[in-house]
Amino acid sequence: MRFSTDIAVDLGTANTLVYVKDRGIVVNEPSVVAVKNDGKGGKKVLAVGKEAKRMVGRTPSAIEAVKPMKNGVIADFEITEKMLRYFIKKAKNKGFLLKSRIVIAVPHGITQVEERAVRDSATSAGAREVYLIEEPMAAAIGVGLPVQEAVGNMIVDIGGGTTEVAVISLGGIVCSQSLRSGGVKMDMAIVNYIKRKYNVFIGESTAEQVKIKWGSAYPTDMDDEEIEVKGINLVSGIPTSVKITVAELREAIHECLMEIVSAVKDVLERTPPELASDIVDRGIVIVGGGALLKGIDKLFQQETLLPVVIGEDPLEAVVRGAGKVSENMDLLREIALA
What we know:
Blueprint: E1 6-11, E2 15-20, E3 24-30, E4 33-37, E5 43-48, H1 50-53, E6 63-66, E7 69-70, E8 73-74, H2 77-91, E9 100-106, H3 112-124, E10 127-134, H4 135-142, E11 153-158, E12 163-169, E13 172-179, H5 183-198, E14 200-201, H6 204-214, E15 226-233, E16 239-245, H7 246-269, H8 273-282, E17 284-287, H9 296-304, E18 308-310, H10 317-326, H11 329-335
Parallel strand pairs: 1-9, 9-10, 11-17, 17-18
Antiparallel strand pairs: 1-2, 2-3, 4-5, 4-6, 7-8, 11-12, 12-13, 14-15, 15-16
Helix pairs in contact: 2-3, 4-10, 5-6, 5-7
């Protein structure tokens, strides 16, 4: 017998993760698709995921490395559908032929048009049923917070395109804020900082690598350490390199981080007193790729005067939560978007 299988997807701006029942996370790849224009308005997919990511900024004119997700939502429907189809096919065993039930995590506050685009894309990619759940809820479940109990849980999910801040209690989001800002905006801030200060233009991929390796949200004992960054001199047009310090790198992304801090404070101000007292005791949990930025917990502690912890496996929190929900139909029906 060949059965269908339940699949959970974290369809992110930077990365897409796929969870399969009884197997765990089977796909964790960049949300990038390399396409070739056929000259007739059509596009042929050449590569998806890691292979396509390596092509970013390195393609000839006929080939384009596309990031079909922008700010956590679908910007290119056709390419997203092809990407999703590729990842679902990769996630399935050969023994599974029937269409799957798919649970997809989406940003809180997603519009109906954006919601429909996700549903249609998943259906076109081979889903039998599509359920959407909100990312903050999925992330909270993924790190084991007691979301169905009458206690306040605060989660901050800093992704590539969006940051989700939410207070959760009794299986619902009590108050929240969704920012169209995250790791990608930090990368662009680094690009712009180096362009403005040193007249050198670097690629987004270079900025991302520098941020991952050297980026910090709070002063460190390595602040004076110099990092060599390669790019194009905007005056001469010649490839060159420039040295910036770890402290300068933090200065470049400071505004982005304070935007997230401001959203956290705003949500805390709107939190009912009883739930706020729970958060004073239980603290704030940070997940997503941004949680890996050095010292981000210290920055949040300093700004909010509350306990702050980094969730376990923060990059995988959303898809693990969506996976747990996909295996519990009662919970899925309770929290899925109508």
